[in-house]
Model the fold of this input.
Amino acid sequence: MGSNNIKKNQRLRRKKVKIFTRKYIYLGLFLSLLLFVFGCSADENENVEGAEAKDAVPIKIGVLASLTGGLEAYGKQSVQGFELGLEYATNGTMEVEGRKLEFIVEDTETKAEVAVQKATKLLEEDKVDFLVGSSSSGDTLAVLPLAEEYEKIMVVEPAAADSITGAEFNKYIFRTARNSSQDAVAGAAAIAKKGVKIATLAPDYSFGQDGVAAFKEAAIKLGADIVHEEYVDPAATDFTSNIQKIIGLKPDYLYVIWAGSNTPWGQISDMKVQEKGIKISTGVADIATFPIMKPLVGMEGFTVYYHELPDNQVNTWLVEEHKQRFNGEVPDLFTPGGMSAALAIVEALKKTEGNTDTDKLIETMEGMSFESPKGTMTFRPEDHQALQSLYAVRLENKEGFDYPVPVLIRELTPQETAPPIRNN
Done:
């Protein structure tokens, strides 16, 4: 009997141990499950909080512009257009995918060394996600290496030198501005044909040099003969000797490339170049130059923009809003360019859902089309140059104006004005 009782007690103890052990195992599993659930919830909360924190971080854009110096008017036009572009593209919210847009404007003073200093400040101190600018090709070329060094997209506007998307190109550069070759194709189409003799007058820096080279290439293809290239100091105010040299060569046309307030038109008129049988042709610049172009009524050339020429919804909004915002003034030559730069950035950010990763943006923007005041623009994948419309025009007197204005001959399509690819 005693032996049986011992065995029975042993079996009872083992049973109790098993039950006790199972209880602790189940409790341990239950606690582990709770920890797993709470851990996942915590991770999810952290992810949500992290995403919300990222969304709360504003997207910063640094704008470089000539707010002083020889290209002051162009810089102010670009900045005004850029701000209007952000408002139009975001329906006034100044947000993309829940992230605020902020832009910081820095004056390059139309000096390359200052442009580099200001761009460095924007990249290092302000931590901008994009650069935009600048008014001067010289300023812009000086800043291009910084975009590559800091791996940030730079949308070039309104600088036109071919080398920006040519010899000095890097993959971080996208240009909404037209380039000198696009100007040249339009300018050549207006006057060049077989047997026509043409002299050129341009400022002696990248804008003028690239412009003449591109015009010469386009004009020669159409059969014209470039008999002389005259380059002058960009800051010059006396063009007498330069114009006299051209008169002595007796070309059929004098094709002028110019930017800035110190234009040669007054002296061209005073020296009666047209009366001597030399026709003038040029790109029609900003409205401020119209009064001094009175002697050129009837001249045929081209323009980048005049507010009455494009017929599209974006331009209509721009003209109406600009008048309301700036005491009845209409947008000028480079206002739509500034707007186009803003529209391109916002369109890219919409496509990336607010992601500012540079590689993602480059992938998105290559080949991207977007609507602008000049119609549809497309970033050509090979060199990131925006293909766009230009306008063949004739200067005519118009009722209500005491100076000639450009009247549309025809719109030159993006396909017609597509420049050569020069970045190898």
Notes: Residues 243 and 352 are 53 Å apart (CA to CA). The mean pLDDT is 89.
